[in-house]
Write a structure and sequence with these properties.
Blueprint (H helix, E strand, L loop, with lengths): L5 E6 L4 E8 L3 H20 L8 E9 L4 H11 L8 E5 L3 H10 L4 E4 L2 H10 L5
Parallel strand pairs: 2-3, 3-4, 4-5
Antiparallel strand pairs: 1-2
């Protein structure tokens, strides 16, 4: 799925949700993102992925710093049952933005500066879960 502020691709064979985020978001953007993630997760389940097996790679290198209300809204929406991945690798390019992401962070999230390192981490632990 392609939208103005994000792209979402699924790889059901690896239970992988790959998201690219960009720009400055409004709460309406968070609404559209939540809906798109829900549709993608449902598509993965119907393709045979097990509930709770989803892993996610989020490329946030083109995402701007966000307002506090967007951060609060995003955290509330993404921490709902069914939308949290088992593991989340987030790729960042800015130390300042890293602090914002840490405020949203989920327990099974790691931050990276290199996408290939992030993907390697996500896929390396498949057998452990």
């Amino acid at each position: 799925m392609h939208a103005e502020h994000f792209d979402i691709m699924i790889d059901a064979s690896r239970s992988l949700l790959h998201v690219t985020m960009r720009g400055h978001w409004m709460t309406e953007t968070v609404d559209r993102y939540e809906q798109a993630v829900g549709v993608a997760a449902a598509g993965m389940l119907s393709a045979g992925c097990r509930r709770g097996s989803l892993i996610a790679l989020v490329d946030a290198r083109e995402l701007n710093a966000q307002s506090q209300n967007v951060i609060v809204e995003f955290k509330a929406r993404m921490h709902r049952e069914g939308l949290l991945p088992r593991r989340l690798a987030t790729v960042l390019s800015s130390t300042l933005f890293k602090r914002q992401v840490e405020r949203i962070a989920i327990p099974n999230q790691r931050l990276f500066v290199d996408e290939s390192d992030a993907l390697s981490w996500l896929l390396s632990e498949e057998a452990e879960t």
